[in-house]
Design brief:
Layout: E1 3-12, E2 15-25, E3 30-34, H1 41-48, E4 58-61, E5 64-65, H2 71-76, E6 79-82, H3 94-101, H4 109-119, H5 121-125, H6 136-148, E7 154-158, H7 166-181, E8 185-190, H8 193-199, E9 202-207, E10 210-216, H9 217-221, H10 224-230
Parallel strand pairs: 3-8, 3-9, 6-7, 7-8
Antiparallel strand pairs: 1-2, 1-4, 4-5, 9-10
The structure holds adenosine-5'-triphosphate (ATP) and magnesium ion (MG).
Amino acid sequence: MLLTVDNMNVYYGAIHAIKGISFEVAEGEIVTLIGANGAGKSTTLKTVSGLLRSKTGSITFLDKDIGNVPPHKLVAQGLAHVPEGRRVFLQMTVEENLEMGAYTRKTGADSHMEKVYALFPRLKERRRQIAGTLSGGEQQMLAMGRALMSDPKLMMLDEPSMGLAPILVDQIFDIIKDLHKAGTTILLVEQNAQMALSVADRGYVLETGKIVKSAPAKDLLNDAAVKAAYLGG
Ligand SMILES: Nc1ncnc2c1ncn2[C@@H]1O[C@H](COP(=O)(O)OP(=O)(O)OP(=O)(O)O)[C@@H](O)[C@H]1O
Ligand SMILES: [Mg+2]
């Protein structure tokens, strides 16, 4: 397994946000975590990437226990997290944002930038533009492109489709498929369960901090309870 989460429990003060969840991601997979607002999806990703700590259990990435490794070291080890709300550096240009994403690299940043531009031609056109003036969809592309600059083994995406028009949602998901074909393993958090399950190999359903279901994505797409709760009936 590339990533194994065993018995994760996360608290915000007295609030028990993640209640003993376990899940895994194999190399080459797209795994999705679906769930309603407040289910704990973002908390789970933040805990894997070291921004929050689990009180119990273990998180294993590339055969190492990463439960106490700080976030910047995890980036260098191949774990990239594109947070909710696309936090790009608003005052910097597109190109400067991408350079920031390469800070863990000793070599190869330039050729890597060309790969990112090949994936996101829109970013190349706008490489001198200040990120704060990009559209929402372009900022999402930039956030993903910046994460790719570290050449991650596992890319965790938190709601990449949030707030985007349907055509841009399709584009973002096409890029997720391209990344997957190119060999990147992806852990995808989405409220857009339909889209997420249609690209994923497997899925987990999170409800108020607990995993209530885990199955191949195509089975979840046909599951009556999942359909009723997350796929608009
Ligand atoms: N900093 C915080 N302090 C206190 N409670 C928090 C904090 N962050 C999240 N929570 C609570 O933890 C629970 C899980 O939140 P989380 O952000 O992980 O949900 P989510 O599944 O990502 O939801 P959404 O789909 O709305 O993004 C929620 O009840 C939320 O109110
Ligand atoms: Mg969230």
